[in-house]
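Service request form, structural biology core

Requester: graduate student, group of Dr. S.
Request type: structure prediction, single chain
Budget code: on file
Notes: please return the result as structure tokens.

Sequence provided:
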Amino acid sequence: MAKLQLRLSEPELIFALTVMQVASYPMPGRADLASFSTEQRQAALQTARAAMIARGLARTNAKGDIELNPLVVAAVGITVRPEAGYWLSYRKEGTALQAVYYNWSRTLIISNWVDADHTHHFEQVAGKDGIAADILARCQMTVAVGGGEPKFVLPLPVLQQITQEGISAEDRLMALKAAGLAGEVAIELGQVLGSPALRASLVAVGNMRQQPSPVGTIGWFVHQERLWLAVEAVPGSGQVVIRRGSAASLSQVVNTLISQAIEATPAHPLV
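Core staff response, request fulfilled:
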């Protein structure tokens, strides 16, 4: 069975959300219906209606009402209302920030993102192992084998501060020293976090249909062909352990976080 793949322009997505009576779309490329004027909204909906009928993604029934293709309803529906969700954010050196959402349910898993042309992509993912495989394929660069020491512990606010865009190397170094890191150690970590070839983070949330429960966040950086992992020391501690890693250790922490969000999502057969 072929996997579900769907491409929708911004007007087409707005049309689908309108037919499905979804008031907002808090996903990448956010299609905020309230941002359109009445005239713009009507023009966009009419254009999208014709385009989706022509593509076989919608049809007019015997009563004259519009019906969406079940594939559209499935893909957009899971994206709007997953049971558990994962948000991948990554940037390779010299490129713009990329964001991909993975929307998990017991019946269907859909990844979605928006490209540079503002086209919304929806693709079926094969199981939770498929989520991890897609994440690693998107933002794992060639790294040297290795792991273990050195290992650093930083307060989360410090890590957030020193990885901000535009912070100078001097300010980054001062923040690290203020956090208690020694001179050479602070210099090394400042270089890793300040100019990586790739930086990425993955946020996991469970039980999204009932009581959204943040499960955790992990981050990783590639600098001079070395991979560095950033993982919370203890959930809720506000302390992050940064250590050298490998492709295998990255795969392990990604898979663990994915499983934890699913485990935090009880079955609700009536929702």
